[in-house]
Amino acid sequence: MKTTPFTKMHGCGNDYIYVNTMLNDVPNPSMAAVRWSDRHKGVGADGLVLIGKSPVPEADFSMRIFNADGSEAMMCGNASRCIAKYLFERQLTNKKKIKLLTRSGVKTLWLQVENEVVESVTVDMLSPMLEDEKLFIPSLDPGQGTFVSMGNPHYVIFTDDVDQVERIGAQLERHPAFPQRCNIEFAHVESDGSIRTRVWERGSGITLACGTGACATAVAAATTGRSNRKARIVMDGGELFIDWALNDELPINRCSSDKTTPNHVYMTGTANFVFDGCIETEDIKENGNL
């Protein structure tokens, strides 16, 4: 019986199954993601993340991420923080600044380490794309949200009722306005300035947190004048801190001498191990048949 070792981790409750493909191959990751992510018959997760060698010299490692429905995602902020913790604490690197290759480009990760434990990670999520950001969907009330791409598409709706994501998130993900489907955020600016956000992730449904979604929400709030360029995003699974840099004079974090890049979005949050295990893989074939 063939088995594959894995590690389950989460960032603010956004949980994935991580496999080190430098040691273990996953021949059909799309099907593996569907089977292993099942919360009743599998490990249970929002998807599968493959950690690998980088095929390009500009990056130290690579990441591929597959949603619970088997579709491959462009990027995941929460997963990238978990990868940083995994690489450092499993002694695959001693770097506290890691370059990670994703489908939406090379991301830089800064690790805040205390006593050889990664306490938090800051990720340079690069610049948001805001072309045609205002999108009106007549079936919605009030009907207009803000479209932000963080390397993957997000539609952010500010509302007093963030829980409506449970009712219409699936419908909006596949709305004709989004031919490639879309991540959906419902957000509300609280009296203390924090932004309460709930998310429907493309390919996974409701998740406890979404790193790129938190970034998109912060950008949308600043763009529409609801917040400044620093925001505390409160999601179901925890908090993420977002800084949409205006200049290059601020340090990335307290452990780095690097400066921010103008217009780049920086996300800071925790990452956590859950457990290690092995899962049977002999019924997941190269051709996708069970």
Provide an overview of this structure.
By secondary structure, the protein is an alpha+beta fold. Helix content is 15%, strand content 40%. The protein is built from 4 helices and 18 strands. It has helices spanning 29-37, 77-89, 165-173, 211-223, and strands at 3-11, 14-20, 47-53, 61-67, 72-73, 97-102, 105-114, 117-124, 134-136, 144-149, 153-158, 183-189, 195-201, 205-207, 230-235, 238-244, 265-269, 272-280. The chain has an 18-stranded mixed β-sheet that branches. A hairpin with a 2-residue loop joins strand 7 (105-114) and strand 8 (117-124).
Task: Give a topology summary.
Blueprint lengths: L2 E9 L2 E7 L8 H9 L9 E7 L7 E7 L4 E2 L3 H13 L7 E6 L2 E10 L2 E8 L9 E3 L7 E6 L3 E6 L6 H9 L9 E7 L5 E7 L3 E3 L3 H13 L6 E6 L2 E7 L20 E5 L2 E9 L10
Parallel strand pairs: 2-3, 4-6, 11-12, 13-15
Antiparallel strand pairs: 1-2, 1-18, 3-4, 4-5, 6-7, 7-8, 8-17, 9-10, 10-11, 12-13, 13-14, 15-16, 16-17
Judged by helices, strands and strand pairing, the structural class is: alpha+beta
Distance between the termini: 15 Å
The count of DSSP E runs of length 2 or more, i.e. the number of strands, is 18
Average pLDDT figure: 91
Order of helices and strands: EEHEEEHEEEEEEHEEEHEEEE
For the CA atoms, what is the radius of gyration?
18 Å
Residue runs with pLDDT of under 50 for 5 or more positions: 286-290
Strand content range: 35-45%
Largest sheet: 18 strands, mixed
Number of separate helices: 4
The level of helicity is 10-25%
Shape estimate: globular
